[in-house]
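Below is how a single chain appears once it has passed through the pipeline. First comes the sequence as given, then the structure the pipeline wrote out for it. We keep one example in the README because the format questions we get most often are answered faster by looking than by reading.
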Amino acid sequence: NSLRRALRAYRRDEARARVARFRGLPDAESDAEVLHHHRWLTSDEALERLAEAEDEGAMAPDEALAMRAHVADVHAARALARTRAAWAALPFQVLDRGGHRERCIDLVEEVAAPGAKANRSLRTAGVGALERAAAEVAPRVEDAAQRAHAARVSVLGTPSPGLAESKDPKPNLATLAGGFLALTDDLAAETLSRASATSGLDHPERWEDLAAVLSFPDLQGRFGQRDRARRIAAPFAGLGFARELGGVKLEPAHPSVGVRARLAVLDPTRDVRVSPAFREQGLASELAILEGVGRGLAQLLLPAALPFAQALPVVDEGARTFAALLM
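Resulting structure:
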């Protein structure tokens, strides 16, 4: 029970802090600060309690596996804390572009804007600045990822002998990803060709050209911010999820680089908050929020009777699949 209470309190405070950051509150805590308040979860005592619970059968096997996954995730979060703080500050990092000092987020905005090709030299210089920043950040991110993986393995790799292991075969994700890309090559090529033709743009040759093409500038007027909530809610309501949709609430936009929505699960069965990206990209923004709301809705469709560790998955694979099907 002490483990269950500790996990519930940590995830609650983590979600509340995330919502506070969405809203730009000055006293919003970082992930590292929240983790510091709940550092017991990364202690040897917590691992000992978990092993005892597994040995004594105090938890059902599925709950015990879910609990161990959460504890492993908390250990990984501790390893990632410093890198996550640097990543959150990255949009506001000042970069050098041809002798001019520009914020990273402003350069991303310029490169991603549909009209960015109008000033090719400035855009090329901006891309160069972003690529130099990426090359500098990449080794630190890779190092942090390896440390986080080692932290997870230290917890997941030594389960109690009394805990039955799943007999389901583990899928090879690299093989699945390769198969998906191979099956969708023709579709991707057709999408790029149509997007380029209808937008009056050249076929993209480099990564920075993708943003302008895939924003579908000729469709911007049809997918504006006005009435977006109504458009997004319509397909869910049509599928009979109007009541559950009431538990998914939109929050202010987050400033992070990227177009995807961010989620904060305040209550796994009643309250999920969705923060869209600050950057407006028309159709891409519409689909990103649709995916975020779909993930939130799928979270609320889980049975309320599930133990907390199972009701709030560490990785919401089912919710992401549900959202992808809706999209």
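The longest helix spans residues 120-156.

See the next section for the split statistics.
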